[in-house]
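Figure 3 (text version): structure tokens given as input.
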């Protein structure tokens, strides 16, 4: 179906045509000649942080470690999955900290991690992770922003360094934004292709009494978004709030603490999250 054919239903034809035309002009991602990318290509963090307290909750098998910069580690050793360690960095207020009276750009959270770190774009990140058990994903939950990875005991230190460096040196990729925007416009009608698809799209806002923070992006909102707005929305969110790390898996506590001291604990003290009044 052409954009023109959608005009009577969705309106704003010129903006939609302009957005699609701009997206079509975006060149496909090009891979550079092969080069090795390693952890030394990441920007440096500060000196290792210091542990200031440790508390063990015996009946849960959980240890909580606090660091001088205000970050914390909640740790639990398990062997449910041999050789696997789950890592989460939780910070901020999530959807609940966004303005309740206006739509947000939270629907763009899927390209925050893919935009890269420092000078490393998506292509370089793929090379960095090749052959390593590491990953990086980003999402917004009801009460926190979450930067996460799946690793093992051997790669835990590098996994934490990668996530911490993303917070210290976030990268914003205009071409990746344009491709994501074009994909969102092209696939928009699929959200209305079945009752199930439409329910999946609209239920979050319905279950929150129409709160704009949980509303799905409209076609026009997707078309009108810009790369500058993407950065302006997410950059402050990545920079605010103490970091609460959660590490669960097949690794010992001292290895996890040492990895935290060299990564999350090495970050400067972060300012507290300031939720807008309209979010209350």
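Below: residues designed for each position.
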């Amino acid at each position: 179906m052409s954009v023109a054919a959608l005009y009577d239903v969705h309106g704003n034809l010129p903006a939609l045509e302009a957005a699609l035309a701009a997206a079509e002009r975006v060149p496909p991602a090009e891979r550079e000649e092969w080069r090795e990318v390693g952890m030394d290509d990441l920007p440096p963090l500060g000196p290792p942080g210091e542990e200031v307290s440790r508390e063990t909750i015996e009946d849960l098998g959980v240890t909580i470690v606090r660091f001088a910069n205000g970050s914390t580690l909640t740790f639990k050793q398990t062997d449910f999955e041999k050789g696997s360690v789950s890592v989460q960095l939780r910070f901020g207020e999530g959807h609940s900290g966004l303005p309740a009276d206006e739509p947000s750009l939270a629907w763009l959270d899927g390209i925050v991690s893919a935009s890269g770190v420092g000078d490393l774009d998506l292509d370089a990140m793929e090379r960095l992770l090749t052959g390593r058990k590491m990953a990086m994903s980003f999402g917004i939950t009801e009460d926190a922003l979450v930067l996460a990875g799946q690793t093992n005991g051997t790669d835990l230190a590098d996994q934490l360094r990668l996530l911490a460096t993303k917070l210290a040196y976030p990268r914003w990729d205009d071409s990746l934004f344009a491709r994501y925007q074009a994909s969102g416009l092209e696939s928009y009608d699929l959200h209305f292709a079945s009752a199930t698809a439409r329910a999946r799209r609209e239920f979050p806002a319905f279950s929150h009494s129409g709160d704009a923070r949980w509303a799905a992006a409209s076609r026009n909102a997707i078309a009108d978004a810009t790369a500058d707005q993407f950065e302006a929305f997410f950059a402050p969110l990545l920079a605010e709030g103490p970091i609460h790390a959660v590490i669960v898996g097949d690794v010992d506590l001292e290895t996890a603490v040492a990895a935290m001291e060299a990564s999350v604990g090495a970050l400067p003290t972060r300012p507290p999250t300031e939720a807008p009044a309209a979010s209350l």
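The longest strand covers residues 51-57.
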